[in-house]
């Protein structure tokens, strides 16, 4: 049986590592056969490609009615302002969002690269909670708390 750690945390206060929790469960008689991580690969190189961004502008894509052309500040350490094409509509200029940068490997195994989308280059991707691996379905971009530092 697979049990998400977040379910366990609804019943048990736990701030330790997942590995330590698995060991305690096994010692209590509930054998843990494996720990399966979901989401994007957790190596430092890949995690560094997921950052906090701030949407500076959101305009209609000139070649596609259902797409947005956005400028997103991802912090000076990550190249500053990037142009990102996005199909979601649940965000506005000024929102703080999760962004994956070129080269990031997403939860589904897709490796992000610069691409022309309907003739406009997109250099990154604003992420939904589903793309972050937090939810099975997500209606749009994950809007983060406004006090998070850009580029973190």
Structural shape: elongated
The CATH topology annotation of the largest domain reads as: OB fold (Dihydrolipoamide Acetyltransferase, E2P)
Largest sheet: 6 strands, antiparallel
One letter per element, helices H and strands E, the order comes to: HHHEEEEEEEE
Multimeric organization: single chain
Q: Find the structural class using helix and strand composition.
A: alpha+beta
According to CATH, the homologous superfamily of the largest domain is Nucleic acid-binding proteins
Can you give the helix content as a percent range? 10-25%
How far apart lie the N and C ends? 36 Å
Number of individual domains: 2
Radius of gyration: 18 Å
Task: Please give a structural write-up.
It contains three helices and eight strands. It is α+β, with helices and mostly antiparallel strands and 152 residues long. The chain folds into two domains: 1-36, no CATH class; 44-144, Nucleic acid-binding proteins (OB fold (Dihydrolipoamide Acetyltransferase, E2P), Beta Barrel). Strand 2 (68-73) and strand 3 (81-86) form a beta hairpin. The chain is elongated. The mean pLDDT is 88.
């Amino acid at each position: 049986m697979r049990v998400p750690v977040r379910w366990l945390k609804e019943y048990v206060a736990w701030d330790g590592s997942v590995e330590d929790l698995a060991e305690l469960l096994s010692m209590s008689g509930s054998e843990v056969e494996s720990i399966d991580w979901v989401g994007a690969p957790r190596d430092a190189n890949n995690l560094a490609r997921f950052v906090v961004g701030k949407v500076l502008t959101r305009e209609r894509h000139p070649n596609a009615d259902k797409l947005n052309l956005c400028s997103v500040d991802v912090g000076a350490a990550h190249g500053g302002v990037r142009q990102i094409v996005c199909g979601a509509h649940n965000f506005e200029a000024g929102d703080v969002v999760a962004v994956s940068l070129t080269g990031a490997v997403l939860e589904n195994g897709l490796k992000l690269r610069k691409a022309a989308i309907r003739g406009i280059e997109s250099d990154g991707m604003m992420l939904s909670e589903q793309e972050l691996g937090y939810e099975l379905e997500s209606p749009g971009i994950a809007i983060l708390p406004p006090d998070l530092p850009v580029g973190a």
